[in-house]
């Protein structure tokens, strides 16, 4: 009797243990399942490519449905633009429009987080084919059973998918026109999401330029001071062709001959510090897409003095205070901006009209150091070469 009872118990226990062991998924089993899902998507895409190349819309539709069923929260079977271009190819405009109305930024982000389809030539084949017959598709849209709003949007969407929106300003204007013409359109959120942000230029701009300046003295300055190799900077405000400029020039010419002041001597070969600060007003005579030319006139402050010694050097003699010269002068210049880069303004977030390039500046400073010392009588003529940044300010919102 005991043997009769024990044998069924042993059989039950053994069966239970085996069934529990089989129910636990192993890593190897999971890998096979993951590979199977990815492989099914890859195989279905290859079949879709074959149907597309055979010009078989019915077959392509079946494989698109298969890829849709294979999609889940983890895997994407078709990228959204691939699917939408295929809708154009099959003339499934109703399905396309229904999907677009639910496609927002959240949906786009959700799609991007999924495991993307394997890299193949599906998009390339679709893109090439639709670009070649895009005008036939435009004609198909015009005769499709769609209302005027749907035809207008479907046309814009195809241009967007085929990257025909090269001119950002023209494209933004067309999208704005659609939004104005159809203010209650169900496509308005998508239209707004693809509209480039074009900043409208105001009539005001700020600019800065800097570079090197080669000068030439006149009269006694030419005899007593070396050639002024200088650094020069311009900071300016522009409005309605008018330019208000602040400029600064820094140089360090050496003394060519002894300079006498109140019985003291500023010796030959001594280094100097020359600074010129100016405020000028100019007006654009020429302002073309590639060049801007304007003359300017103004006044400035000039400083000429011995160069301050370093901390580890001997201090200047006390009598060097006699060689600290300041003066006020008139100034004039002719400036030409060569606009080298006018299409990169969006890279630095500025409106159209902004540019950067080379600035050439031919100028004159009517220095008055000669009123303080006869050895320093003369003027400064210079040629400067700058790199120039000109940024138009955006128009403020009303």
Spell out the blueprint of helices and strands.
Layout: H1 2-23, H2 27-53, H3 57-70, H4 80-89, H5 93-100, H6 105-113, H7 122-132, H8 134-143, H9 148-161, H10 168-181, H11 188-194, E1 201-217, H12 219-224, E2 229-239, E3 242-251, E4 259-261, E5 264-266, E6 272-283, E7 286-287, E8 291-306, E9 325-341, E10 355-365, E11 380-394
Antiparallel strand pairs: 1-2, 1-11, 2-3, 3-6, 4-5, 6-8, 7-8, 8-9, 9-10, 10-11
Write down the Rg: 38 Å
Q: Overall mean pLDDT score?
A: 86
Number of domains: 3
CATH-defined fold name of the largest domain: Porin
The helix count comes to 12
Sketch the major β-sheet: 8 strands, antiparallel, barrel
Q: What percentage of the residues does DSSP assign to strands (E)? A: 25-35%
What's the number of extended β-strand segments? 11
Please explain how this structure is put together.
The protein is an alpha+beta fold. The chain folds into 3 domains: 32-127, no CATH class; 133-194, no CATH class; 201-394, Porin. The protein is built from 12 helices and 11 strands. The chain has helices spanning 2-23, 27-53, 57-70, 80-89, 93-100, 105-113, 122-132, 134-143, 148-161, 168-181, 188-194, 219-224, and strands at residues 201-217, 229-239, 242-251, 259-261, 264-266, 272-283, 286-287, 291-306, 325-341, 355-365, 380-394. The strands form 2 sheets. An 8-stranded antiparallel beta barrel has the order 1-2-3-6-8-9-10-11. The longest helix is centred in the N-terminal third of the chain and has 27 residues, at 27-53.
